[in-house]
Amino acid sequence: MTNRRVVVSTIALLVLLVPVHVGAQVIEQVLVNVNGDILTKTDFERRQVEVLRSRPELGNVTSDSPVLRQALMEVTPQVILTAVDELLLIQRGRELGLALGDEQFESIVTNIRESNNLTDEAQFEAALEQEGMTVETLRSTLERGMLSTEAERMEVVDKIVVTEDEARAYYEEHSEDFTTPATLTLREVFIEVPVTALGVSVADDDAAREEAEAIRERLMAGEPFPRLAGELSDAPSRANGGLIGPIGVAELSQPLQDRIGDIAVGGLTEVIRLPTGYQILKLETRSQTQIRTFAEARNDIGEQVGSAKMAGERLKYLEQLRDQATITWWNEELERAYDEALAARQEAMEG
To answer: Global pTM?
Structure first.
């Protein structure tokens, strides 16, 4: 709660908005009017707080921190653009005859209370008060969100169609997305060759190799690989019975691929000389490269292509609503921030 108060106080200092006083009464300042619906200073600051609270690096900053000031400057253009977008969508929702019914609201409230273990009305109202809300403001907030979401669904999402040609073109251009590479799961025993200040002695090297050969003979005789790896291996994998993987075959060196290539599942390699010791590998599992057919991937393709199309269509739809709207600004700083964010969005659409 302390961090939230710090951010709120800083926003009040930095956003360059001053409330109008009439005697002892404070009149809420209007920042922008969109087709008769207004965005107030309080609502805008709340939106800024919500965005800044999602940035953990700001958790311990003070109200006079340059980091907080810079973060506020960075988020403000997108915050004001999003706020105006939401007003336009909410208005369209009303035009479509949408509303949050009593039964729907009560169902949402019940879910909120159950998920937060708020067993009675008093606890629920106390929880709302902690967030600076009442039941009435909660309902208004929920309804505005519903109007915005449903208007977007009806006017944009439900109209997205992914044709067969589009789906096939995506499948061909992104074939790697539908390919599962071949993998291996191995077990290892590694015997390290001691290194002294004078380097590696021939005797130590021979002893390590002989130990590895003896372990391989025991494995060939049927002793459990996980047990011998856990007891005798010098590799960190000993903690897992020597288990390594799954590993993509393409991640292995070519010499190692060649050594394992002809081994059946359950088979052992010969003792392998490594720069630091001797290794024995067992092939636990092998999976082949798998490619999903177009028919198998069709639903996923539809979602991916549809999401990309929806993003573009949503921006076009918002531009239509904005072009038909009457937007009156009462704060020049925010108008400039809005124009900046709008220009960036239009550039992205054209790109």
So the answer is: 0.64
